[in-house]
Amino acid sequence: MTRILDPDSPIHSLVLVGDYGSGKTEVSVNLALHLAAAGSRRALAIADLDLVNPYFRCREAREPLERAGVRVVSPEGGHAFADLPILLPQVKGLLQDRETLSVLDVGGDEAGSRVLAGLAPAFDPARHAFWFVVNGRRPFCDTADGVVRAIRRVEQGARGWRVSGLVSNTHLMEESTPEMILEGIALSRAVARELGVELVFAAVMEGLEPESPDLPLLVMKRMMVPPWERRPGGDASAARLGVTGS
User: Fold this and answer.
1) Is residue 243 scored above 50 in pLDDT?
2) 168: which of 90, 109, 137, 177 is 20 to 30 A away, CA to CA?
3) CA 85 to CA 89: how far, in whole Å?
4) 66 is in which domain, residue-wise?
5) Exposed, middle or buried by CB within 10 Å (0-12, 13-18, 19+), for 153?
């Protein structure tokens, strides 16, 4: 298994942002599961900070995450879709907890990234990775200039956070191809060079792995399923497992 993060890395919080439709939540959930499967020496947690998209939230994959040993930090019970103030102390605790390796799934675009503004005083680039998920098949993110503009908007909303790495996740749902993924990697590399940051890994659904991408691959299973695809009266997680796509 290719490791996305060195087990001896001082980084203990992986904060993922991205434009709407980037696939950021799918990447966040699969990244947490990857870290669990890789045998992390630290406790694992994932925090749901997505206040923008009501359909794809990492809290929807709670069952498989907890089964893998990943603690899901999100509002409970009647507060399951509550606003940020309920979560802020818990998330700040994760940013300060060096014994836990955490993934923070932040809402898309600059509106979603504003939830990080209140956490800016706790941000430490030496301990917190801030990664932007790039999908080159989304409107306005199909060129390097467009991606850079999207990143700057997110940084402006986050107030004090600066993107430190990129994740390539170019896809077009069921129409994705290995060639499309390679094009997305090339686009992400161009953006990384322009910004002077690292292209950390590429995310790809099972069965679409390109040959020789020359960077770590996160091979994903589809975990995020919109409400209209879930089994009527059934368990949402059961509808996810074994389903491939993007």
Assistant:
1) no
2) 90
3) 8
4) 13-240
5) middle
- Is 154 exposed, middle or buried, given 0-12, 13-18 or 19+ CB atoms closer than 10 A? buried
pTM score: 0.86
Q: What is the 3-state composition of the chain as percent helix, strand, coil, each rounded to the nearest 5?
A: 40, 20, 40
Mean pLDDT of 2-29: 90
User: What distance in Å separates the CA atoms of residue 130 and residue 215, rounded to the nearest whole number?
Assistant: 18
Q: Assess if residue 106 is contained within a domain.
A: yes
Which three-class secondary structure state does DSSP give residue 226?
Answer: coil
pLDDT band at 236 (very low <50, low <70, confident <90, very high): very low
Average pLDDT taken over every residue of the chain = 83
In this structure, is residue 6 part of a structural domain?
no
**Three-class SS state of 89:** helix
CA angle 182, 189, 51 (to 5 degrees): 90
